[in-house]
Amino acid sequence: MRKQFAMALCLAWGTMLSTEGSLRAQGAPAPSTEKKVTVYGKDKKVLCSMKTSEIDSIVFAEPVPTADVLDVVFHEDGTAEDISPMRNEVQLVGSTSYTRFSKAYNRHIATFSNPWAGTATGYYRVDFEQNQEFRDKLADGHTLEVLFMPNYQGSIPNQECKPFSAMQAGGTGFLVTTTTSSRKNEICFLPNTSANGKSTWRWATSGIVPQPKQYYHVVGVWNKEEQKARIYVNGELRNTIAAPGNLNFASSGSNWFCVGGDPNGKSQAANGWLGNIVLARIYDDPLTQEDVSLLWKSVDVNPDEMDAELVKNVGFLSGMGVKAGGTYMIRGEGFAQGDQVTLSLVSDKSQASACALTAQDGGALMRLPANLVSGQYRMTLERGSKSQELGVTNLVVLDWKPAGMRVIAHRGHWNTAGSAQNSRASLRNAISLGCYGSETDVWITTDGQVMANHDATLQGVRLETSTYEQVKGLTLSNGEKIPRLSDLLDILEGEGDTKLIIEIKTHTDEARGKACVAAVLDMVKSRGVQDKVEYIAFSLNLCKELVRLDPTAHVAYLNGDRSPAQLKALGIMGLDYTADRYRSNPTWTSEAKAGGMTTNVWTISDTPTMAEMTNAGVDFVTTDSPADALDVQKAYDLQKAAE
After folding, report:
1. Residue 437: other Cβ atoms inside 10 A
2. Which domains can be identified in the chain, with CATH numbers?
3. pLDDT greater at residue 15 or residue 631
4. What DSSP character marks residue 403?
5. How high does pLDDT run on average in the chain?
6. Are 368 and 327 in contact (CB under 8 A)?
7. Is the pLDDT at 574 greater than 50, yes or no?
8. CB–CB of 104/128 below 8 Å?
9. Which residues, in sequence order, are CB contacts of 465 under 8 Å at separation 6+?
10. pLDDT score, position 60
11. pLDDT digits (tens, 9 = 90+) for 37-51
12. For the residues 252-275, what does the mean pLDDT come to?
């Protein structure tokens, strides 16, 4: 990049320019004594000083608009601050985002590893619920600006993904849309405005489908006076639409801007972003085309100046338990012989080690230093004179080597095209994925048919008080008819090694629940698939009934209020509890192992918590994200095999 002085300060604020010696003409020989150009502020303090030999030209530029409501700047330690005059608090939430310095943009940028459009487990939060000044500035017209890079793999997922937004049932922000008859998976500015106070989304679509590994500078303008919304991408006006009325704010508790997702109540974020975000800003005024052009010019980086990408599709498990002197798996494509990683402690950069890499199928194993301590580490790949920052990870040093938790798909693998919870397709998907188990929920009808469904009702029909004739035509979201347990056992008999984990639901009448237990056990026994079925229940009495009728069955208790010793005394050989129960009772996993019992954690869908529970010694995980959980299992198993 050419080195230039953009002298906007001189024009706007009367800053003095001093040339200590004369600038040499282009092509003239360098003077024997090096000269410098120094810029002074009004208070006579030096703003910058540079040798004349380092300067290509001095450009007197128009001042770039300044964000006066919010201007998020990321820091090396992963935190962020608002440098706008409002100085809003910027809160870092979670551990699946990190920052790194970009030479191209000359600032720290944030990288988010949330599942695309899924629950955001790493993001930044700027709360304005009670900030009337902030709300007023949004309400009288505003401009949003974001510079982002998506990092999905393959085809773009058809799900709403939001890099910078505050639009839960109202509000304003950016998203990548889902497809409709009139929309592609495109970048969109989406304010909610109306004259009558009713929620009305104004879809300012851009027509641009964002590609992975490409940066996009996006500006959304809502001009209340003109009753228009506009979207600009890379300095170009892409769309202008009508947006009359007043701004309808988000629902109570969701009036906060999320960088890396979208608010989902007071304490959660949804529609998570996967990729990088360089900046996120809000302006009180609706900016003009000229303003937007200046903003774009300030971030328009030549592709040749972008940071080197020696390895592609990098991934790793933050929060993973490791041994000092052991190994750590980094996924990616393009690792080469002789590559090393500089591993530096974020809290103390002087604590840095050069770590050798051993290429593996799908990535590389990094040899960890023998004096490693638990902490957050920055990983930089070194290859000759080139380097690439791989990211920041949290390493938890353990004195043992946990195996990966085996994976149970919660209600089957349902969150994929053509599937539904507790459907035949969801069981087949879990089998195809290679899950240890596929969980399902069962109720018994008044005439003794065992039906698979989570809720007590489906389409308004209560299963336990209805006949089979009354429920057999009920339809799941994927078009399937509600399955009987016998339908799922048909699939189980013929395909794979995946087990069916049957939850006996707590019926309104315990006698009906026990009738369900008896019917399920009889059906499983008659099919000869006892070795492919396990049982769970919230009701302690139903667990005891399962053990009474089949002492060989593996039964786990869900309610979380019994210790391993108490359950074992009842013949119940499994704990199936929430993460909080294991955190509150950290010895239960070791006590269960000592007693020959199993432990499972439910329902975990974020990888940091999966890592935490693996480190705690839990055996199984029930999850709505079985593919991610299998990746976590593989990472631990590879590490264990390499020791």
Report:
1. 24
2. 4-59 (no CATH), 70-305 (2.60.120.200), 317-397 (2.60.40.3920), 406-642 (3.20.20.190)
3. 631
4. P
5. 91
6. yes
7. yes
8. no
9. 446
10. 66
11. 888 877 778 878 888
12. 95
551 vs 243, 308, 572, CA distance in Å?
A: 67, 61, 9
Q: How many CA atoms lie within 13 A of 517 on its CB side?
A: 25
Tokens of residue 456, six digits: 């007590």
Q: Which of 207-216, 312-321, 463-472, 618-627 bottoms out in mean pLDDT, i.e. has the lowest? A: 312-321
Residue owning tokens 């799922």: 488
Q: Residue 87: phi, psi to the nearest 5?
A: 50, 50
93 and 125 Cβ atoms separated by less than 8 Å: yes
Nearest to 154 by CA among 278, 274, 330: 274
| Whether 277 contacts 147, CB under 8 Å | yes
Kindly state the DSSP code that residue 481 receives in the 8-state scheme. Answer: B
Helix (H, G, I), strand (E, B) or coil at 277: strand
> First CA to last CA across the chain, in angstroms?
46
Residue at token pair 């770039």: 64
Per-residue pLDDT reduced to its tens digit, 163-177: 999 999 999 999 999
Identify the CA nearest to 563 among candidates 602, 589, 542, 596: 589
> Can you read off the two tokens belonging to residue 278?
């360089």
Res 434 pLDDT > 90: yes
Query: Which of these, 440, 441, 489, 435, lies nearest to 620 by C-alpha position?
Result: 435
Q: Are 409 and 419 in contact (CB under 8 A)?
A: no
Q: Strand 375-383's sheet: what is its strand order?
A: 312-315, 327-333, 363-367, 348-360, 340-345, 375-383, 386-397, 320-322
Phi-psi region of 526 (alpha: psi -120 to 50; beta: other; left: phi over 0): alpha
Angle at 213 between CA 116 and CA 215, to 5 degrees: 100
φ, ψ dihedrals at 260, nearest 5°: 110, 10
d(CA 327, CA 388): 20
Token pair listed for 326: 């052991």
Residue 4's pLDDT band, with cuts at 50, 70 and 90, is very low
Q: Collapse the DSSP code of 134 into the 3-class scheme (helix H, G, I; strand E, B; otherwise coil) and give the result.
A: helix
Handedness of CA 151, 156, 157, 158 (dihedral sign): positive
How many other C-beta atoms are found inside a 10 Å radius of the C-beta of residue 507? 20
Contact 83, 89 (CB under 8 A): no
Please name which of 156, 155, 210, 205 lies closest in space to residue 182, comparing C-alpha atoms. Answer: 205
Q: What is the rounded average pLDDT of the residues 398-417?
A: 94
Do 610 and 320 contact (CB within 8 A), yes or no? no
Which uninterrupted H or E stretch holds 394? Answer: strand 386-397
- Quick: pLDDT tens for 93-103: 986 678 888 88
Residue 357 Cα distances to 217, 366, 383, 403, 506, angstroms: 36, 5, 11, 22, 52
This prediction's pTM: 0.73
In a 13 Å sphere around the CA of 245, the CA atoms on its Cβ side amount to: 17
The distance of Cα 356 from the centroid of its chain, to the nearest Å, equals: 29
Among 278-282, 441-445, 548-552, 603-607, which is the least confidently predicted range?
603-607
